[in-house]
Structures are given as structure tokens and as C-alpha cells.
Specification:
This protein has one domain. The chain contains four helices and no strands.
Length: 84
């Protein structure tokens, strides 16, 4: 399961790289997550990450990133369910 999540994260980073035309998507995402958290300290880290990705999806109207994020969140949820 962890490998599947890592694979999805890599695909998400690659898609973000394409959308933002950046060669450092992982670092750029970390910066965006940090800024989101600074501006909305009441959010959990997971919620801040959701806001950033959902903002990118909305801004770019990108169905591919939307699908990848949906798959990733479902995989995380399934992992939590299996662990319980």
C-alpha cells in the first residue's frame, strides 16, 4: 500500500510540475503547504495540503490532477481502514 501511495504522490508531483512549469514540484508544493498553514493555522497539515491541491485543480481546471488526488486520498483512507 505504501508503494502505491508513493507512486501516486510521484504522479501528483509530476502533474504539478507540468501545470506550474517547474523543475522542483516537491519543494514548490512544500512551500505552498507551509504558506497555506501560515495563513490558516487552524487547519491541520492534511487539510492545508488538501486546500493547496484543490486550489491548483480549480485554478487550472485540471481533471488529471483531480483524479490523481482522488485516488491518493482513497488509498490513504483504505490504508487507515485496513489498519483498524
Amino acid at each position: 500500500m505504501a508503494t502505491s501511495n508513493q507512486s501516486l504522490l510521484l504522479k501528483i508531483e509530476q502533474r504539478v510540475s507540468t501545470l506550474l512549469k517547474t523543475k522542483t514540484p516537491k519543494e514548490d508544493l512544500q512551500d505552498m503547504y507551509r504558506l497555506q498553514k501560515e495563513h490558516t493555522p487552524h487547519l491541520t497539515q492534511e487539510e492545508a495540503e488538501d486546500y493547496v491541491i484543490l486550489g491548483l485543480i480549480e485554478t487550472h481546471k485540471d481533471h488529471e490532477l483531480d483524479h490523481l488526488w482522488y485516488q491518493y486520498k482513497n488509498a490513504l483512507e483504505e490504508g487507515v481502514t485496513e489498519a483498524a
